[in-house]
Amino acid sequence: MDIWNSLSEEIVTAESVQKFKEKLDKFNPVIYN
Fold first, then answer.
1. Which of 2, 11, 15, 31 could be bridged to 23 by S-S, CB 3.0 to 4.6 A?
2. Short-list 24, 12, 14, CA closest to 33
3. Quick one: pLDDT at residue 6?
4. Does residue 22 sit in helix, strand or coil?
5. Burial of 14 (0-12, 13-18, 19+ CB in 10 A)
6. Which residues have CB under 8 Å from 7's CB, separation 6+?
7. Where are the domains of the chain?
């Protein structure tokens, strides 16, 4: 839950799953790959 809460609103409100994944990778590629 802490990880989800640390995400920016831009990531959480991404318009598609693909966009969410892209933004998540940019947010912190080491943790989420």
1. 11
2. 24
3. 83
4. helix
5. middle
6. 24, 27
7. 2-32
Whole-angstrom CA distances from 1 to 6, 8 are 9, 14
CB 11 within 8 A of CB 23: yes
Tokens representing 18?
A: 């693909």
pLDDT at 7: 87
DSSP 16: S
The parts of the chain modelled with pLDDT lower than 70 are 1, 29-33
